[in-house]
Amino acid sequence: MVSPRRFPFPRRSRRALAVGVVGPLVAALAAGLVTTAPAEASVPTGFTDTVAIGGLSSPTATAFAPDGRVFVAEKSGLVKVFDSLADPTATVFADLRPQTQDFWDRGLLGLTVDPAFPARPYVYVSYTLDAEPGGTAPRWGDTCPTPPGATDKGCVVTGRVSQLTMGSAGTAVSEKPLVTGWCQQFPSHSVGALAFGPDGALYAGGGDGASFTFADYGQAGNPCADPPSPAGTNLTPPAAEGGALRSQSPRRAAGQPVLLNGTLLRIDPDTGEGVPGNPFANSSDANARRVIAYGARNQFRFGFRPGTGELWAGDVGWDTWEEINRVADVGDGVAENFGWPCFEGNARQAGYDGANLDRCESLYSSGGHSAPYYAYNHNAKVVASDPCPTGGSSISGIAFESGSNYPAEYSGALFFADSSRGCIWAMQTVGGQPSASRLVPFVTGVNVPVQVLTGPGGDLFYIALGSGELRRVSHPGGTNRPPTAVATANPANGPAPLTVRFDGTASTDPDAGDTLSYAWDLDADGAYDDSSAADPTWTYTAAATVDARLRVTDSHGASATTTVRVTVGNPEGLDPVPVIDGPASTLTWSVGQTVSFSGRAVDAQDGELPASALSWRLAIRHCATNGTCHTHNVQDFPGVASGSFVAPDHDYPSYLQLTLTATDSTGRTGSKTVDLQPKTVSLNFASSPSQATLTVGGTQQRTPFSRTVIAGSTNSISADSPQKLPPLNLKYAFTDWAHGGARTQNIIAPGTSTTYQANYRLCWLLNPC
Questions:
Q1: What are the pLDDT digits (tens) for 335-350?
Q2: Cα–Cα distance measured from residue 719 to residue 56, given in angstroms and rounded to the nearest whole number
Q3: pLDDT averaged over every residue in the chain
Q4: Pairing status of strand 347-348 against strand 321-327
Q5: pLDDT-derived band of residue 630, with 50, 70 and 90 as boundaries?
Q6: What pLDDT, on a 0 to 100 scale, did the predictor assign at position 26?
Q7: At 660, phi and psi to the nearest 5?
Q8: pLDDT per residue as tens digits for the range 578-598
Q9: How far is Cα 7 from Cα 396, in angstroms, rounded to an integer?
């Protein structure tokens, strides 16, 4: 996935912090997202991929407690808990929605459980705090108005790591904030993973909170008050230290604040303070004392290699490279600098290199940054034979094999996921170390994987955000094989009211002595909470086609599901029919343009549906030059017949998708989607003399060249200086842009194609560079 690397997270409603709330799992995810991945996930021969927990709403993370409980974080701010993998019904452990901003990539994203749970009854969460630095929540709600505009000035928020305490009822009774920070201007690269290390410390990560569309050094208002100017003052090269350069804040001059953006933290799980022995343990800055590594763009996921103090982190790249970074020993007192934004992959990042920023230039000259352990290019296959699409990437999971019954070649393997490609790979070991020479596809065709981890039996589990599931990859050739679910319905059709007897007793388990438990979703609401009997009955009172589902789970926690269809009455054609009155598909839009929408829906039974039955979703379809596309959900508009949105900034090629979904009184739905293409313009770049290297966004090119962008988009440009120009390889220095402005600047794409020319002079003895 190119520049933004975001995940399509739908927005949910808010409620107050709930203590001791018990209820059925919410309905299955209705994200309606389109991915380039195949519809069905595939695993190597001999493995099985089954649903462990389904019916989740935008799940982002899960954690297995030592006592068998399973905790699941949903992006809206809910933490749910299941008694075990066989438990069909969730309890709401904590409701953090009032203080969580669930917008674009922001939300509840990190979750872990105390290793001594439940003796230490603590669950830890990492989420986007809907508050400006020093402010209180809620500030914006689950949206970002214009102004300030999500991709213009940005709705500034922070991040938080908290300790939740479980009470006697098994739900959270209190929240204790441990760390609050991560000033985030733009709606991606928020907080990320949480994990306990072998030393008992709590580890946390987070992104840079900077722009994903231009080289951001603080020139868009500097709301985080980064040096050398106060908040509200646009920063300029070479001294600027804002935007993505917040990831280099541990290298700032003495007395300047160290930020959490782009860092890995090692903290006390009870106080949030830095652990003694950390690299900056003697600093007077509390944030510095927490940091053990920095220089990352978006450390969304990380994990420890079993039996070691090695921390491995996936870092989401910008234009070209995804990285896997390694901290060799979290307790060695050395702070690794992974180089962002000065480096991406193994090379200098062109967009920031071209700006001649002091913070990057000093790193280039002094060296000392840590190259990635492994990096893969957005336009290249990870494994030549894998079916995963290229043209974009977003590394979204890190885990190690530990104690499974997988074949020997997977022993100690590193698993990593890519949410854009919909794939999970295994990096098998050579000489005891994960080796890029032994990369194999492990799960392909996943519906947006956003976490991988090991769980019961040592099996690999992963969160499939797009399908709202926690899934399990097992190897039945081992000690435990999954069951087979079989369900029948009698009668399977008839007029309403229709009483149906379901029968799951034909389900089997291949392992002698295993017993099966049953969980049914008979009302098709996504929750397996309607019966635990092997042969329940259910009465349907309205005409509908219902896909009833059975999940069987064996005594070792392995499960399988199946579906049986029941037709009540003659429901053909009874889905509500939504109509989008506007905008028309012929509309073309510019960044910052207000687009109005309106629609309605008619249902064969209910007639014209009220506005409360309508819900809209705005999404961006981002496509690569090879034609593969992925979807970013931007915002939901529930319960309205009309409204408006401001067209966001995004790299081209991309377009907007507006979907209207109508739900009738029986729960049947119908959707209608309109694709809205952008107005595009050519930005033509020239130089005098020709063949100068210019930087646009994150890439460099010699003039003359052109870039197609969306009208109204913000684009960073730099004229590299000094530089040697062909054919004589003489040195030239930048003098000016023909249109004016600084050597490094942002330009707003006009409504018509425009040429931007950089002028240079020859450097010589009497007029040196």
A1: 999 999 999 999 999 9
A2: 49
A3: 91
A4: unpaired
A5: confident
A6: 24
A7: -105, 125
A8: 999 999 999 999 999 999 999
A9: 10
C-alpha–C-alpha distance, residues 263 and 274, integer Å = 13
CA-nearest of 367, 352, 236 to 720 is 352
Q: How many CB atoms lie within 10 A of CB 563?
A: 13
- What is d(CA 140, CA 384) in angstroms, rounded to the nearest whole number? 45
For residue 627, give the 3-state DSSP assignment. Answer: coil
Q: Please confirm whether the linkage preceding 147 is cis (ω < 30° from 0).
A: yes
What is the rounded distance in angstroms from the CA atom of residue 311 to the CA atom of residue 376?
A: 19
- Structure tokens belonging to residue 252: 């700032």
Mean pLDDT of 286-309: 97
In 3D space, the residue among 219, 201, 198 whose CA is nearest the CA of residue 210 turns out to be 219
> Is the previous residue joined to 10 through a cis bond, with omega within 30 degrees of 0?
no
pLDDT given at position 513: 77
**Exposure string over 267-306, b if 16+ CB within 10 A, otherwise e:** bebeebebbeebbbeebebebbbbbbbbbbbbbbbbbbbe
Assigned token pair, 330 = 């979290």
Residue where the block lists tokens 């992925």? 630
Predicted structure pTM score: 0.85
User: Hey, is 715 helix, strand or coil?
Assistant: strand
Give the tens place of pLDDT for each residue, 103-129.
Answer: 999 999 999 999 999 999 999 999 999
**Region for residue 351 given its phi and psi (left: phi exceeds 0; alpha: psi -120 to 50; beta: otherwise):** alpha
pLDDT surpasses 70 at 729: yes
Q: What is the edge-to-edge ordering of all strands in the sheet holding 744-748?
A: 699-702, 693-696, 714-719, 744-748
Q: Please report how many Cα atoms fall inside a 13 Å half-sphere around the Cα of residue 120, on the Cβ side.
A: 12
Instruction: Report pLDDT digits (tens) over 143-173.
Output: 999 999 999 999 999 999 999 999 999 999 9
Task: For the chain, give the percent of residues with pLDDT over 70.
Answer: 94
* Ordered structural domains, the chain, with CATH: 21-474 (2.120.10.30), 488-568 (2.60.40.10), 577-678 (2.60.40.640), 680-762 (2.60.40)
**On the CB side of 91, how many CA atoms lie within 13 Å of its CA?**
17
